[in-house]
Write a structure and sequence with these properties.
Blueprint lengths: L11 H7 L15 E7 L5 E7 L1 H4 L4 E5 L38 E2 L5 E7 L2 H8 L3 E6 L5 H6 L14 E8 L1 H10 L2 E9 L11 E7 L4 E5 L5 H12 L6 E3 L17 H12 L3 E4 L2 H7 L6 E9 L5 E13 L6 H11 L9 E10 L13 H19 L3 H8 L8 E2 L5 E2 L4 H11 L5 H10 L2 E11 L2 E2 L5 E8 L5 E5 L8 H13 L6 E5 L17 H28 L6 E4 L2 E4 L5 E3 H7 L10 E6 L2 E2 L2 E11 L5 E11 L6 H19 L33 E4 L17 H19 L12 H14 L3
Parallel strand pairs: 1-12, 10-11, 14-15, 21-22, 29-30
Antiparallel strand pairs: 1-5, 2-4, 2-6, 3-5, 7-15, 8-13, 9-10, 9-12, 13-14, 16-17, 18-28, 19-27, 20-21, 20-26, 23-24, 24-25, 28-29
């Protein structure tokens, strides 16, 4: 059957979530629970000379106060970062130790120093204010210039020079020579500022200790219960089967809810010490300070071309801010995603990329929606627009001249990555037509008459999806006594619609009503499964493919049962549209009848475990953005957004378009203001509340025109490609190119995000003072 579902009826989870019947971390209550509050560092870099918690311990309602000294013998260990392939000279990532509570030194504002547990959250907070800490301030390191300075303070003794990893790919010598010999080249530096995940639900956890089994129940938002459980096992030294991460709803993730945070092992320690459940909820400021941030990358690139405008070489140099400690996936994604898509959708003869991962006195950075893919495409697309200006050629014509052609797939890139499928010229043609690119100059003249600058920008992109660290994704399909089919997998949903999509898929394959199928992720009381969390735009590709395997196994089992019911040979039984039929006859039984025939059997004969080996696919797209800029205020208005995407077979177009739209909004928000700003003098996070931090609003973008130009992936049985991060990956470069195009018409030759009104206005004023070149 086609993987496209029937008419969309809405997500089944929405009724629960929008009526307040969802169950998030704060909705869980356990008998006799206590409440916790973390005291955090108010400075970026300092030695802890002494902590005086006596007054806090004597405060009303306080049950315990824990510092690094109190948990010193707990056996905690740093969660190791995921290792990329060997880097420059064969090096591996150098890991700094990260204490669960700051020990002897603090390295960023917000680092947890002490935990206070009390009968109420208010009492815990009040007591924390009584803790006195004697600090000796140290110089802070904020930004790349400070981190790489010869006299920079060293954050960790085992990381001299504050560079924990250097990664490279491609051919440096060949690329250098090609650039030197080329007809022409352009060089550009672009920033992708640090951003905060800002999910709707703040971070938190409720932990209970079961003394009889020496085990823990942990309730906390996550993108995959088993992945979080295994991370906690590494940090605590416990066996994974001693930790049960309970199923809960998740109010947003964006990469920040995959790996456990240092607070969680300390809460587990406290729950065991007190023999009572311990509940902790962060504040919004806590989240701004300590949720793993995203981006924080500066790239310099050089694109060289021949006399015909054909690209001959690309060199990129990445500086990636890892923060004060290493989050689990930050270094990995900021390395391998550049390697995978270094030249994006274009052919180049030579390519070289260099990535340096730096330590600074800021919050750790981790994989965040797109995870290095937006930046890899951003530098390429910005360079192409600059080359088009220099060559006086239409940007789309220059792109078309250099695209990988459809008949060249599967396509091996200069770094050895293999693109599975695509039609890049088709994407470009489609977005050109749908955005009415040909008549842009007329619209620009109309805007000029109204006193506004109009700009247009295109960005093509490609990104890897799928993969994972577990080699297989396991699923289960178990039938209940009433005939209900329960699907189990390990990828936790946080808005993607798993509870709707997986049952719809299975219903179509088996020919049974979707209403009789439930989806559960990471149920600690369910089957023991292994697999990957919801990361890397992979859930439909991987878990969906595993369910396809399960459906095939169920059908084969059911054929034998149907043969018994029809008193025929199993080899004579055919199956289509939910009906088993004896070949050449009209005698048949339905899948529903087979299921109900064995209702109450334990186990049900159709219960199935299945797995699918991990694979990758490469979604791609072409986005065009138009903006208008008010010269007197610098305000930027997006007046048009057209996106044509290749996500392979769309399982549910409505949900897929919702993911693309959400991703576009997230990417555009970074262009138009979203940024974590640290004071370079003292390391304070200036944007630590929604009063200071830019967030996208409903009027930031017009409703985008979305279209599909899909080529099914040959790498999985559904033919799907990832969709969750495609919008963000395309939006960053498309929006930036549009803004720069508008400003260029007013004489602005250099501009980088964020395109806030004051920054845009200042750029226009400087251009007026300088005058025409």
């Amino acid at each position: 059957m086609s993987t496209t579902t029937a008419a969309f009826k809405g997500r089944r989870e929405d009724a629960r979530l929008v009526t307040g019947a969802g169950r998030y971390t704060d909705d869980w209550r356990l008998p006799n629970q206590t409440h916790a509050f973390f005291l955090r560092s108010d400075r970026a870099h300092a030695i802890i000379r002494h902590i005086d918690a006596a007054a806090a311990r004597q405060s009303p309602g306080v049950l315990a106060v824990l510092t690094a000294e109190d948990v010193r013998d707990a056996g905690f260990a740093t969660l190791p970062p995921l290792q990329p392939p060997p880097g420059r000279g064969g090096q591996r990532v150098t890991m700094p130790e990260r204490p669960m509570l700051a020990s002897g030194r603090v390295r960023f504002v917000g680092e947890a120093i002490a935990l206070v547990i009390a009968e109420t959250a208010a009492l815990a907070r009040d007591a924390a204010e009584l803790i006195q800490i004697d600090f000796e301030d140290l110089p802070s390191v904020i930004g790349f210039a400070q981190a790489l300075a010869p006299d920079a303070a060293v954050l960790h003794d085992n990381i001299p020079g504050n560079v924990c990893f250097e990664f490279e790919y491609g051919d440096e010598a060949k690329t250098t020579a090609a650039i030197a010999q080329a007809h022409g080249s352009v060089t550009l530096t672009v920033d992708s500022p640090r951003v905060a995940p800002t999910p709707m639900e703040v971070r938190g956890a409720l932990v209970a200790y079961d003394a009889a089994n020496e085990s823990y129940d942990v309730y906390t938002p996550n993108q995959g219960n088993w992945a979080l459980r295994d991370g906690l096992a590494k940090m605590t030294g416990l066996a994974p089967d001693k930790i049960r991460v309970q199923m809960i709803d998740v109010g947003g993730a964006f990469g920040a809810r995959t790996a456990p945070f240092p607070e969680y092992p300390v809460l587990m320690f406290a729950a065991r010490k007190l023999q009572r459940p311990v509940k902790w909820l962060s504040t919004r400021t806590d989240d701004f300070l300590t949720d793993n941030h995203g981006r924080a990358i500066t790239l310099t690139g050089t694109l060289a071309y021949d006399e015909n405008g054909r690209f001959v070489a690309l060199r990129t140099d990445w500086l990636c801010d890892s923060g004060a400690y290493l989050a689990e996936a930050g270094v990995l994604t900021n390395s391998v995603n550049g390697f995978a898509i270094g030249a994006s959708v274009y052919k180049v003869d030579a390519l070289y990329g260099r990535h340096r991962q730096l330590m600074t006195n800021t919050a750790p950075t981790n994989a965040y929606r797109g995870a290095g893919r937006p930046e890899a495409n951003l530098i390429v697309e910005r360079l192409i627009d600059e080359a088009a200006v220099k060559l006086n050629i239409d940007p789309l014509k220059l792109r078309a001249r250099n695209l990988i052609k459809k008949n060249q797939f599967p396509y091996r890139t200069p770094t050895g990555a293999m693109f599975d499928s695509g039609d890049f010229p088709g994407l470009l043609d489609a977005v050109k037509e749908r955005s009415d690119w040909a008549h842009f100059n007329a619209r620009r003249r109309q805007s000029r008459k109204a006193g506004k600058l109009r700009g247009i920008g295109c960005a093509m992109f490609i990104e890897p999806s799928g993969g994972g660290h577990a080699k297989q994704d396991e699923v289960a399909a178990f039938f209940q006594p009433d005939g209900t089919l329960v699907l189990h997998n390990v990828a936790g949903p946080s808005g993607q619609g798993h509870e709707t999509v997986f049952p719809e898929l299975m219903a179509g394959w088996l020919g049974i009503p979707a209403e009789r199928i439930l989806s559960r992720a990471g149920d600690p009381n369910g089957p023991k499964l292994h697999g990957n969390p919801s990361i890397g735009s992979r859930s439909a590709l991987s878990q969906g493919s595993a369910f396809k395997v399960a459906s095939t196994l169920i059908i084969e089992k059911a054929k034998r049962l149907a043969a018994d019911m029809l008193e025929a040979n199993a080899g004579d039984i055919g199956f289509a549209d939910g009906v088993f039929t004896i070949a050449g006859t009209d005698r048949s039984v339905t899948m529903t009848q087979v299921i109900e025939r064995h209702a109450g059997d334990t186990p049900h004969p159709l219960d199935t475990l299945a797995a699918h080996d991990i694979s990758r696919a490469f979604p791609s797209g072409a986005h065009v953005v138009e903006v208008e800029i008010a010269e007197d205020t610098g305000a930027v208005e997006v007046v048009g957004y057209t996106a044509v995407d290749d996500v392979g077979n769309m399982i549910n177009p409505t949900l897929a378009h919702g993911q693309i739209y959400g991703g576009i909004t997230q990417g555009a928000a970074q262009i138009f203001g979203e940024r974590c700003h640290y004071d370079e003098g003292n390391g304070q996070l200036v944007t630590s509340s929604f009063m200071d931090y830019f967030m996208p609003r409903a009027d930031m973008l017009p409703t985008p025109t979305l279209a599909s130009h899909s080529v099914p992936s040959p790498n999985n049985p559904l033919g799907v490609k990832g969709v969750g991060e495609a919008g963000t990956t395309g939006a960053l470069a498309a929006c930036m190119n549009a803004v720069v195009d508008a400003l260029r018409s007013a004489g602005v030759t250099q501009f980088d995000m964020p395109a806030t009104p004051p920054r845009v206005w200042s750029a226009l004023q400087r251009a007026r003072q300088v005058g025409p070149a």
